[in-house]
């Protein structure tokens, strides 16, 4: 083996693709030559399969769609940390926030500008505190670090000191080379409030009422200077939970999605407890958050008695849009605590509803393979969708009427598609599990591994 020379790239695929056209003709009489030929072919196949397996395990093989015999899947290399946050800005530029758990290790922000071939450490939070990252473009971004509060705790909701962690903000205008501390006063009533920024300056947030931070109620506030100052513009609609998801599609149109959770609580006899359905699962504002109106969604029949979870609507060109929803059922049998058996899992079905009039009316729910908690989805336009379910990708070109499904990742791995992974109709990044990354530059037809950086502890 000392003189072994690696074959040219693509040997495994060439061997497998050429087998059906190899021109092997059956001998009139089984003979020694025929057996030798078959032995050579089998040996070549074994070597090819072994090489594919080794390269796929190393994570350096981009498996094309339609590879014969259903050989394995992409197996990107794992990191020695948890990728807690990530943002992808182009086919080559990406950011990750890594949390090192050893001895409550630091939180480290890393950047690549060559598609993951090399990485550079940009920012480090040494005490293990959490944070988040958001870029509006390749140069302008904001980093949030959670730091301990210096004020003593209090039992009064919303009062100073009621939280032992407060946010500290940094801004960059040169792609992360330099960071400026933004000295914003801590708004105790809005600590942990959900917010959504349409751009660097325009943003909205939901501030819960002081009397009930875990129930419905609260105000909608708006900023026009990047969060320096906030003004109350409206109220959270009655019946919408504080866990609702807030988004805006333009400066006037916003969406608030609630989740109908039945919680599946049982009494001592194993009977489900009564459930009060929310007034609506989707609300819309068309005046910048001042007033909100419920939207009538055509939910599937099974949603009436089961949990429902909604994603925010996605629009293309203003009028055409769609919305994902998920119906989750309980475990098939009631199991009291301490039963000594592993908990049974309930079922989960994903659906999409569409609109062609800006969200005033929605179509009947259409069942989809994958999406949401199963792995996420990308919507290139109103008809071209890509959905994940574990290691598989399903694609439709006709708005969900027909689908093609193929395995892309190795068994045991799962896609995690999210809106912030999508760059354009060709460039997609995806986090695979807690510590792996993959990338596609042809709209999801082929995927390659992204080697995560090694981070000094």
Quick overview of this protein structure:
The protein has 457 residues and is mainly beta. It has helices at 11-18, 32-58; strands spanning 82-88, 94-99, 107-112, 120-125, 131-135, 141-148, 165-172, 180-182, 194-197, 203-208, 218-223, 231-235, 245-248, 254-257, 282-285, 293-294, 307-310, 314-316, 320-328, 348-355, 366-368, 377-379, 385-389, 392-396, 404-407, 415-416, 428-432, 436-440, 448-450.
Helix content, binned percent? under 10%
Main pleated sheet = 5 strands, antiparallel
Distance between the termini: 39 Å
Look at the structure and name the CATH superfamily: Prolyl oligopeptidase, N-terminal domain
The CATH class label is Mainly Beta
> And the CATH topology?
Methylamine Dehydrogenase, Chain H
CATH architectural type: 7 Propeller
What's the total number of strands? 29
* Poorly predicted residue ranges: 1-35, 37-70, 211-215
The number of helical elements comes to 2
Q: What is the CA-atom radius of gyration, in angstroms?
A: 26 Å
Strand fraction: 25-35%
Mean pLDDT: 76
Number of structural domains? 1
Shape: globular
- Given helix and strand content, the structural type is mainly beta
What would you note in describing this structure?
With 457 residues, the chain is mainly β. The chain has a single domain, classed as Methylamine Dehydrogenase, Chain H, CATH 2.130.10. Helices cover 8% and strands 31% of the residues. The strands form seven sheets. Strands 17, 18, 19, 20 and 21 form a five-stranded antiparallel sheet that branches. Strands 1-2-3-4 form a four-stranded antiparallel sheet, with no helix packed on it. A four-stranded antiparallel sheet has the order 5-6-7-8, with no helix packed on it. Strand 15 (282-285) and strand 16 (293-294) form a beta hairpin. Helix 1 (11-18) crosses helix 2 (32-58). Residues 1-35, 37-70 and 211-215 have low confidence and may be disordered.
